[in-house]
Specification:
Keywords: Plasmid. With 43 residues, this protein is mainly alpha-helical. It is 95% helix and 0% strand. It has one helix and no strands.
Length: 43
């Protein structure tokens, strides 16, 4: 019972880290595209 709970905790922790990395990449992409769009609008 305890082992199963720890396995689930480990999985969710790993997923949280993966989601965090994906979120950071998404934010970077959004910032980059916004900068490009602003450059196109201004230029």
């Amino acid at each position: 019972m305890v082992g199963a709970a720890k396995k689930i905790e480990g999985a969710t922790d790993g997923e949280a880290k993966i989601l965090g990395k994906l979120g950071l990449q998404l934010i970077k992409v959004l910032l980059r595209t916004r900068r490009v769009l602003m450059g196109l609008l201004m230029g």
